[in-house]
Amino acid sequence: MSDSFRAILASDVEGKAVAQMTDMSVADLPTEGVLIDVAFSALNYKDGLALNGNLGKVMRSLPMIPGIDLSGTVLESPDSRFRPGDEVLVTGWGLSETEWGGFGQRARVKADFLTKIPGGLDLKRAMAIGTAGFTAMLSVMALDDHQVTKDQSPVLVTGAAGGVGSVAVAVLVANGYRVAASTGRAETHDYLKSLGAEEIIERAELAQAGRPLDKERWAGVVDTVGSQTLATALAQVVRHGSVAACGLAGGSDLPTTVLPFILRGVNLLGIDSVYCPAERRERAWQRLAAELPREKLDAMTEVIPFDALIERSKLILKGQVRGRTVVDLRA
Description:
- By secondary structure, the protein is α/β, with parallel strands linked by helices.
- The chain folds into two domains: 4-117 and 301-328, Medium-chain alcohol dehydrogenases, catalytic domain (Quinone Oxidoreductase, Chain A, domain 1, Alpha-Beta Complex), CATH 3.90.180; 131-270, Rossmann fold (3-Layer(aba) Sandwich), CATH 3.40.50.
- It is built from ten helices and 15 strands.
- The strands form three sheets. Strands 3, 4, 5, 6, 7, 14 and 15 form a seven-stranded mixed β-sheet that branches. It has a six-stranded parallel β-sheet with strand order 10-9-8-11-12-13, with helices on both faces. Strands 1-2 form a two-stranded antiparallel ribbon.
- Helix 1 (45-51) packs across helix 10 (309-317).
- The radius of gyration is 20 Å and the shape is globular.
- The protein starts with a strand and ends with a strand.
């Protein structure tokens, strides 16, 4: 096994994180944990921030290999739960924030962070799901836990053409929910309908401030946008419905009132995919392997070579990436 590998390394250059492709050695990695031969990673919005100079927003210290997701094969393990040859994945757990991440052909991570690839998935599809799909499944599980109805009003998915939204639409439909998909990109309408969305809601319709309590429209919501979009959606949720809030693509503010909560009993459910407990994490991955239709996952996924990652990361910050982008670190 060669000790040298290619990686994107973020370094501090005059107070700014600058990410560059470079050659590294296994000796450069953190000294403790399981050594992984990384096959695939994924491009998420947070990765776009990390790769484009937003030091304070993502990475807490430098130098660091960014990348919040990885899948690969165990090379060396001091932990009896994992053996050389095991196929594993990591999402969250502070990767690219406080822990070195997945944009390198080798990674050394704590054993507690690892999840074995569940049956029915491979290394590439695990990253086609990645943090985005994992977050989507946690959102669906939260709606299930709060008994969101499947036979009446639809579930709204905001930012539906993105990675979280795409998987959320596909999984909700597979679980018998009716889905309305919100997007601001007309070119994605056919794509969202191919995932099973019954109705397309224009982004601008939800971005306008309305009444504190509006007409009841949604049995539940998976919201990736935040800000006014989330506030508008909350005002339109049916009595005792639930909203899974899992993103802030439109902003971190929430200009709402308490009326949806105290007059309709609406539940606002926060989704934390980074430090999700291991048992719930395992259950989410098992459900993804069983319930996410492979043909829909493949249709929403584009695979790019490692060398194309930095340029592609600029597009995700502009909202110009549809579905999921898998990074092949071997290409």
